[in-house]
Amino acid sequence: MNRKVNDWIESHKEELLEDIKALCAIPSVRGAATEGRPYGEGPYRSLNLALSLAEKYGFSIRNYDNRVGTADLDPALPRTLDMLAHTDVVPAGEGWTVTEPFRVIEKDGRLYGRGTSDDKGPLLCAMYAMRAIRETGTSLSKGVRLIMGADEECGSSDIAYYYGIEPEAPMTFSPDGEFPLINIEKGLFRGNFSRSFPEDTGKPRLLSLEAGIAVNAVPQKAVLRFEGLDLHTPEVRDILRSLEEECQVSFSISDDQEITVTGQSAHASTPETGRNAGLAAVMLACRLPLHPSEQTKALSKIPTLFPYGVTDGSGIGIRMEDEESHDLTCTLDLFHVDPVSMSFTFDSRTPICASRDNCERVAGKNIEDAGFIWDSPGMIPPHVVPPDSDFVRTLLKSYEDVTGLKGECLAIGGGTYVHNLKNGVAFGAVMPGIDTRMHGADEFFDIDNIITATKVFAEAIQNLCV
Ligand SMILES: [Zn+2]
């Protein structure tokens, strides 16, 4: 390890924190496009502040039409390593208690504010790693470039644009995740199933059941509407109470014929952390004393295909796992039921061992056997960078040497910024086991973590670009 570089980083801590505060003060949430500002005013200002800092610190910069900016440590050297970070943020949201979302403060050894850990803080750690190398006169023989996107949070159109112009570097890491290193993103398998039936007006009956706002999120809320059902009988009360207990959700009777179910939302890549309001609503409809019909019969199949609280796909026969990428996850996220039809959509994150044969075909057959019409856009394969490549091994060694912690590869279900890059991994910047509340209220980044991440990036650059 290079003492001079690490000492430089320690002695420029205050300056780094000031830059993070300034960059996070810009509410760079995507807005309406105007002339020269493809993602709106905030992302424009944020990207341009990051670029002007890079220029001030002596790097060669380029602005790709206010979608992406780059900073090269030495453009004369052959392009070798790219670091990919972003200057936009998700909206502030509700519930901030420590500070205003766009007024970063230092408290208890942390910086609090939107963007501190996702991803403006990590972006500046990467920039300061380059700066430390430059200002200590440490020589490299290969080039390193910081790529700064302005639209990561709303679909990553920024890097699609950039890679339409520039080739992928031989190696890319993105400090937009966690340490040690994410080399596998599971595949994606989604399916829709539906059926229709003749209307049966026998009462009491279910008029509608709606749940889910996005295919990639466990529904937090579901609404059921009935006709001719007395919701205030002791029998119905008992059913509600026992299901509330069983599913850990809450029911509220909003008017005479309507029940709202409230569960807990979660990202579809970690469905086990949610409580699926849609599935609880289906269970409720199955237990209430409704007039038997084709509709209630079809609905009764759902808890077998997607048992409440089970997120491993076993109900549709696709439970599987492998050592490298771990277990398959599966969650039913979109629900629609009316008097003549019903349809549902699930989201599954698949390990490397999943194939059309053992996954897509099996799920389709089980769903068809239950009486539904099956439709799937097909499977998207996982993103995998070999764990034993020189690139990955060098990153892990850099992390181990700086932190003294064990470096190992992680597999996750969510898509990251490097999903479409052949040799791209997520590397930092958040230390393992810490939830910095990215996308939530009171997002933070530990100051120790900021300094450690900067040193790890500097070490990685030196090891990869000698
Ligand atoms: Zn991010």
Walkthrough of the structure:
- By secondary structure, this protein is of the alpha+beta class.
- It folds into two domains: 3-186 and 383-464, Aminopeptidase, CATH 3.40.630; 187-380, 2-Layer Sandwich (Alpha-Beta Plaits).
- It has helices at residues 3-11, 13-24, 41-56, 120-135, 157-163, 234-247, 277-287, 294-299, 302-305, 356-369, 390-403, 447-464, and strands at 60-64, 68-72, 79-86, 105-107, 110-112, 143-149, 171-174, 177-178, 181-185, 187-196, 205-211, 217-218, 221-227, 250-255, 258-262, 266-267, 321-322, 326-327, 329-337, 341-350, 373-375, 379-380, 383-384, 409-412, 424-426, 429-430, 444-446.
- The radius of gyration is 25 Å and the shape is elongated.
- It starts with a helix and ends with a helix.
- It binds zinc ion.
- The site of zinc ion has 5 residues, from loops.
Helical stretch count? 12
Structural class category: alpha+beta
Count of strand segments: 27
CATH superfamily of the largest domain: Zn peptidases
Named once each, the bound ligands are: zinc ion
Quaternary structure classification: single chain
CATH C-level label of the largest domain: Alpha Beta
- Strand fraction equals 25-35%
The overall pLDDT average reads 96
Are there runs of 5+ residues with pLDDT below 50, and where? none
Which range best describes the helical content: under 10%, 10-25%, 25-40%, 40-55%, 55-70% or over 70%?
25-40%
